[in-house]
Amino acid sequence: MKKIESHKRDRKKKFKDSRNLKAEGHARPDLMYVALYKPYDVLSQFTGEEGQRTLREINLPRGIYAAGRLDRDSEGLLLLSNDGPFIDRLIHPKNGHERSYLVQVENIPNDDALSRLRSGVVIKGYKTKPCQVELLTSEPKLPPRMPPIRERKSIPTAWIRISLTEGKNRQVRRMTAAVGFPTLRLVRESIGKLRLGRLQPGEWRAVSSEEIL
Asked: Over the stretch 37-52, which tens digit does the pLDDT of each residue have?
């Protein structure tokens, strides 16, 4: 009888301690947040159809899943976690957390195209929200993509940085195409406060929730 009562007291104490940690703003030890450089041609999930590359090929901690999506043909920062409420807060459209992308486009965008991107363009009947767009003066330092993009010698390319507070399906690619400059390569470099940093494709590091929001 004493053992049973002791077990009940232990369970109550653990629940109280967990509740206190949450109330005091301390991170629960069982919650994980992982920043991954998702390689090109890898799905942002652990399952796929035959022949598809998935996150299973990367030695990631168990029990985490992607916060939002990063298309198969896109690369860069992907956040994974087992903290459902945090993920919901991060990706919910009403919260408008910023995501930044490095985008290589075909040809050199002119001022009119950049202005249209900033103001919002119509894609599939939806006008995108105003966003930040910068034409980069030099190529960003990124790992080479495997396989490399198909470049045409007669057509120059340029890099722009686009920072959005929304995430419609294939939004960046559709935005650049709408103003006449197709996307050749797309790398997400930040989510909220969290940056890709020095991670290489397939590499990951553990982070805290404070590093993200």
From this structure: 999 999 999 999 999 9
The pTM of this model reads 0.85
Question: What would the mean pLDDT of 72-76 be, rounded to a whole number?
Answer: 98
Give the H/E segment covering residue 176. helix 171-178
CA distance 53 to 7: 46
Position 66 scores a pLDDT of 96
- For residue 119, give the 3-state DSSP assignment: helix
Q: Token pair for residue 131?
A: 């966003």
Q: Quick check: is 41 catalytic?
A: no
What six digits make up the tokens of 53? Answer: 């590359």
Q: What is the reported pLDDT for 27? A: 57
Q: What are phi and psi of 2, to 5 degrees?
A: -65, -35
- Give the separation between CA 131 and CA 153, rounded to whole angstroms: 31
**Tally: H helices and E strands in the chain:** 4, 11
Structure token pair of residue 138? 């030099």
Catalytic residue among 30, 71, 88, 111: 71
Q: Is 154 exposed, middle or buried (0-12, 13-18, 19+ CB in 10 A)?
A: exposed
